[in-house]
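> example.struct
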């Protein structure tokens, strides 16, 4: 197709410094945090207003040009990978907090606002925004909405979808619509269109304005760090905490490799020689937290931990979390390359899943660093490999596929919060029937009949995950993944 009329129209919207078309300019947008994929877009546009985004989407619909909306590019599933012969709509300059109402406990923000900045702005009112992905200091709220991000404290407070009250959206055909409101009173009335849009990975359009609910900051935190001699025992400790009836704000586990990485990067001061660490944090009203703290200590003492530490002040608490939240990036110190997975298993099978990951790690001869949201069974195994070795990526991907297959067999999911994106799309038939997938596609086509909004993501078909090959993918041959 001749794109000259399309680009001529873009030039009427954007000055040349905000319409990038040269190779060097496009380099930073060729991939997201899943660097196994790289695709050069035809152009990148940098809007500074909602009207510019709306005009751009309408042009794309008119000319049939595919696009992907992108924030900070922290997606770990290739969800914000550009489309060949398409454009990237970079939303970082739509970064205004348009309203913050401490009485209603809401904030109205644009999609380019960084997650942590919402809590920083609300701090003066003793409020905060609860979802806290590990990348919260850089990831944008628009991306959080697209992938329904969670974080360490999603066990108690839920995912992004639990904190979105309203959305202003430009759909893929250029129509501007609003879902929800600034009030909780309308929640549960009529179809849950916010629930449909949140987590749709950009397949419906672009969020222009997001109304989030804010929570009062907890009066008291109690943060406990427990060390274990093996990973399975730490996993079983999580089941013991849940069985006790307690609901911590967060429960996280790190294994030996991730502990080593965190120590080398941030000097978190974790116990030496621990095979696994369990972080449990209680938060809320002081009286309740103190009562629950006594109970949680009894459970952890009975769980087989050989060392227990309690943060004495805010500085020690932040040091514990700094190590945990820096674990993903820190693993880069241990290996030139790694594959991050995002499977989910029922909490009752957590110990079994960890033992199986350890077995698979030995079978494949690959180190696996485990960092995960233990409270909701969201595993983040990081498979270490050297991409310069021939066949190393394929070998690591095969192990990753086995882990995802195990998650489904145990009654879990192929993703908890990273999304399907490009990476996991060919694993979708492991969870969903052909009828299920066709139903999803039908809904998508109702909103985006030309399928131009972030095409190629989520649904099976086309090139296999993280590999640019022809013919049958080796994982397909082994029955680990399948295609339409």
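> example.seq
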């Amino acid at each position: 197709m001749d794109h000259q009329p399309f680009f001529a129209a873009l030039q009427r919207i954007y000055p040349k410094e905000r319409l990038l078309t040269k190779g060097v300019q496009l380099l930073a947008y060729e991939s997201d945090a899943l660097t196994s994929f790289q695709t050069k877009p035809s152009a990148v546009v940098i809007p500074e207003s909602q009207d510019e985004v709306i005009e751009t989407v309408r042009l794309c619909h008119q000319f049939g040009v595919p696009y992907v909306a992108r924030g900070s590019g922290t997606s770990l599933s290739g969800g914000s990978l550009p489309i060949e012969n398409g454009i990237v709509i970079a939303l970082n300059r739509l970064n205004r907090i348009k309203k913050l109402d401490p009485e209603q406990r809401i904030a109205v923000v644009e999609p380019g606002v960084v997650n942590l900045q919402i809590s920083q702005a609300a701090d003066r009112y003793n409020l905060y925004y609860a979802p806290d992905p590990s990348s919260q200091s850089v990831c944008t709220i628009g991306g959080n909405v697209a992938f329904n991000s969670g974080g360490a404290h999603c066990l108690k407070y839920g995912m992004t979808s639990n904190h979105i009250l309203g959305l202003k959206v430009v759909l893929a055909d250029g129509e501007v619509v609003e879902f929800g409101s600034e009030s909780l009173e309308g929640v549960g009335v009529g179809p849950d269109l916010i629930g449909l849009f949140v987590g749709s990975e950009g397949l419906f359009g672009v969020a222009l304005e997001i109304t989030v609910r804010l929570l009062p900051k907890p009066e008291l935190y109690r943060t406990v760090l427990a060390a274990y001699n093996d990973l399975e025992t730490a996993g079983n400790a999580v089941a013991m905490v849940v069985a006790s009836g307690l609901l911590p704000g967060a429960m996280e586990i790190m294994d030996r490799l991730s502990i080593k990485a965190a120590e080398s990067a941030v000097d978190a001061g974790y116990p030496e020689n621990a095979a696994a660490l369990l972080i449990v944090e209680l938060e809320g009203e002081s009286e309740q937290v103190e009562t629950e703290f006594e109970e949680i200590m009894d459970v952890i003492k009975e769980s087989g931990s050989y060392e227990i530490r309690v943060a004495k002040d805010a500085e020690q608490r932040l040091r514990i979390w700094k190590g945990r939240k820096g674990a993903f990036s820190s693993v880069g110190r241990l290996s030139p390359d790694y594959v991050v997975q995002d499977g989910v298993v029922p909490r009752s099978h957590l110990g079994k899943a960890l033992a199986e990951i350890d077995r698979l790690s030995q079978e494949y001869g690959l180190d696996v660093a485990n960092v995960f949201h233990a409270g909701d069974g969201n595993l983040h195994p990081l498979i270490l490999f050297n991409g310069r070795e021939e066949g190393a990526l394929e070998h690591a991907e095969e192990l990753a596929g086995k882990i995802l297959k195990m998650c489904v067999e145990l009654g879990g999911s192929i993703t908890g919060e990273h999304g399907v994106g490009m990476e996991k799309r060919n694993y979708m038939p492991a969870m969903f029937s052909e009828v299920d997938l066709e139903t999803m596609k039908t809904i998508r086509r109702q909103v985006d009949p030309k399928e131009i909004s972030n095409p190629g993501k989520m649904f099976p078909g086309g090139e296999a995950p993280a590999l640019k090959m022809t013919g049958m993918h080796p994982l397909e041959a082994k029955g680990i993944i399948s295609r339409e």
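> remarks
The chain has four domains: 4-90, 97-216, 220-330, 336-368+380-477.
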